[in-house]
Structures are given as C-alpha cells and as structure tokens.
Amino acid sequence: METKVEAQIVEGKIGVRCGSCGKQTVNNPCGHCGTNMELTPAARRALGLETGEERE
C-alpha cells in the first residue's frame, strides 16, 4: 500500500514521515517498515530525488 507523504524537517534533518509506521525516514521505501511511499513533488525535491533539475 502506498501512502502520499510530504517532506518534513525533524531533528534538523529533511525527511518524510512514513504513512504506515509513522517513523521519520530519509529513504524510500521506508527504512523502518519497507513501505513504498508516493512522494509529493516537493518531498522528492527536498530529498534530492528530483531528476528534472540540475543543481550546482
């Protein structure tokens, strides 16, 4: 089951809160429970997963 999540800053790190287990993670799928999350575009950019942009 996929859950749509937004990026959050928790404890000084940018990550996402898993919609399944509720724990903060910087990985997709979740590093705790393995749920594959559907990230919003803003969350993808925050985690550095957006491939359409070139960063310098």
- Overall geometry: globular
Poorly predicted spans:
none
Radius of gyration (Å): 11 Å
Give a quick account of the main beta sheet: strands, pairing sense, barrel closure. 3 strands, antiparallel
Task: Name the beta content range.
Answer: 25-35%
Helix and strand composition category: alpha+beta
What integer is the average pLDDT?
A: 76
Work out the helicity level. Answer: 10-25%
Q: In whole angstroms, how far apart are the ends?
A: 35 Å
Describe this structure in words.
This protein is an alpha+beta fold. The protein has one domain. The protein is about 10% helix and about 25% strand. The protein has one helix and five strands. The protein has a three-stranded antiparallel beta sheet. A hairpin with a 2-residue loop joins strand 2 (about 5-10) and strand 3 (about 15). The termini are far apart. The mean pLDDT is about 75.
